[in-house]
Design brief:
By secondary structure, this protein is of the alpha+beta class. It contains six helices and 14 strands.
């Protein structure tokens, strides 16, 4: 089963690019971020006609996450537990059943800039809630995946110019430490389990010719519970689509699981 995460930076802006990638890459499940659409306005027809069940957790103008699946989804929930007052649409969960069941968690972690400040405080608090949810997922002992745009550069090898990000919320020591605390619960960074080399990125800014200079960062991650990691057969980044017409500033990251 091929499962991908993709921050599309606006479903309306990617109304041609997303279907084109789906047709060429043929993922069975996709976790989308930044759909920037309320649920009722999401163009599900172009996805349902390709055989996908569509589940969204939308928000007008920004944020928003979704799951597309060619397999039935069960027990769909929306919103990261831990703060009932949080109105930002950044988390969606569902269970997909193949030969075994897998709990899918799609996330769009807060950016946190400018840091320090209220936005960075929200980011760290959100990561603490994510840590709690991750701990509960492990306790359930069902294969689980937490995938999406983490807005975290885990280490210097994940940036072309690491010094340029030293004071950014994506790479501050507190951010990296919070990410490590989650991984160290027992999760596997799927891409790093397959490829330890530098120079692999999932985001290139639209400005200053970043794509042409490969001035990127790796901030889109798939974290696998031990039970899910045991099922992994491959993982990769579809970097080439960043050069296609009207691209997102992110590209898909995918994993294949023997499900």
């Amino acid at each position: 089963m091929k499962i991908a995460t993709f921050n599309i930076n606006g479903i309306k802006a990617r109304s041609a690019a997303l279907p084109a990638w789906l047709d060429s890459a043929t993922p069975e499940i996709v976790l989308l971020q930044e759909i920037k659409s309320v649920d009722e306005a999401f163009p599900r027809d172009i996805l349902e006609e390709r055989g996908y069940q569509v589940e969204t957790h939308g928000q007008k103008g920004f944020n928003g996450v979704a799951i597309l699946s060619k397999h039935p989804l069960e027990d769909v929930t929306r919103g990261l537990p831990g703060d009932d007052s949080d109105e930002q649409a950044r988390w969606i969960e569902a269970t997909v059943v193949g030969k075994t069941a897998l709990r899918l968690c799609g996330l769009y972690l807060p950016n946190g800039n400018p840091a320090p400040g209220p936005k960075y405080d929200y980011k760290l608090a959100w990561m603490e809630r994510l840590h709690s949810r991750a701990r509960d997922l492990l306790a359930d002992e069902m294969p689980a995946m937490m995938a999406g745009d983490y807005n975290v550069i885990p280490q210097d090898e994940d940036a072309k110019r690491p010094d340029a990000w030293r004071q950014d919320a994506l790479a501050l020591p507190e951010t990296r430490a919070a990410f490590r605390r989650i991984v160290n619960l027992g999760f596997t960074d799927a891409f790093r389990a397959r490829n330890q080399a530098a120079g692999h990125y999932s985001f290139w800014d639209y400005q200053a010719g970043a794509w042409n200079r490969n001035d990127g960062i790796r901030i889109d991650h798939l974290l696998l519970s031990p039970q899910a990691a045991d099922l992994m057969t491959d993982c990769g980044i579809d970097a080439e689509i960043r050069g296609h017409d009207k691209p997102s500033d992110h590209v898909p990251v995918w994993v294949e699981l023997d499900l």
